[in-house]
Specification:
There is one protein chain. By secondary structure, the protein is of the alpha/beta class. Helices cover about 35% and strands about 20% of the residues. It has helices spanning about 20-25, 45-50, 65-75, 95-100, 115-130, 145-155, 180-185, 190-195, 200-215, 305-310, 325-340, 355-375; strands at about 5-10, 30-40, 80-85, 105-110, 135, 160-170, 220-225, 235-245, 250-255, 265-270, 275-280, 285-290, 295-300, 380.
Length: about 375
Amino acid sequence: MKRKLRMGMVGGGLTSFIGPVHRKAAGIDGEIELVSGAFSVVPGESKATGEALYLNPNRVYETYQEMFEKEAKLPASERIDFVSVVTPNHVHFGPSKMALESGFHVLVEKPIAFSLQEAKTLKKVVDKTGLILGLTHTYTGYPLVKEARNMVAAGKLGAIRKIYVEYPQGWLSTLLEKSGNAQASWRTDPKQSGMGGAIGDIGTHAANLAEYITGLKITEVCAMLNTVVKGRHLDDDTSMLIRFENGASGILMATQVAAGEENNLNIRIYGEKGGLEWRQMEPNTLVVKWLGRPMEIIRAGQSYLSDDAKAFTRTPAGHPEGYLEAFANIYRAFTKAVRDYKPGKKINYTKYDFPDVEDGVRGMNFVQTVVKSANSSKKWTPLK
């Protein structure tokens, strides 16, 4: 396929935060062209967004249903190749399902769906159609996260014993949803966000990062959910003990009421021989601490990094890469899979290294299990 992939977008209108992030990330490598969209349910906003993005007005739609119906009827040389779904949580399932059933690959914001049942249904559709579904667990796209994962997989830390992962934010320290803030409004609304507030919004990122780097699955949780800000309808603070499949134990914290914090996602992993630490707000540094010898500071862009890290690095050492590039790495890996796609042949997701439908189902299962644990009198709740 010697051309740019044609992308459609559902959501991401002029007032959106994440839509522009996706568009910028998709454009970084020059592999993707945005050609169509159904950008908003607000009357006139989809059209206005299309105009602002200089799109053909005939390819800008009022609803995603209209978009998929009309795009599917276009010649193969014109129609979209995939759709990026960047809507609030309750509008992930419908567009993703219809896109797949209309013959289009999907890259969807996390969480994959509103509920575990919807997530499982999407997996069935992916299995039936054979099409590709990617999920934007952005933090797995950082080069030094890849390096950390490679070190663990190579056994450099020895058997993993302890994992600490936390994601403190402070932006919901007040009842911001009552001030007209669109992001706060839908993220704290059970009808739009789902059963989880902070745990669904950022706790899933923390859990996914822990599993991604260690290669270990969480098997049990002992969780506590809090709603700290009076008048809020979903949790804004959570803490839990976690167990992993190899017997390792861990602690996971996710809060949006840590006043003064920004997006301070960080993880520490300890094995028999040493440990490592990575912080999202300083993503180009990986600290490795060894038993009985000096610690190491590993930096992005260096020649000593693994091939896994180098494959997702764009700039020389000292030229920082960040959030947009991590997003772009997921788009680039997804794009490679779409280019290699052949009808009737199952894609090998591990070859491309981006979050997929399995991660999506697991994320929703995690949220449901944490909520169940928090509401249970039992000490531990299995993540099945």
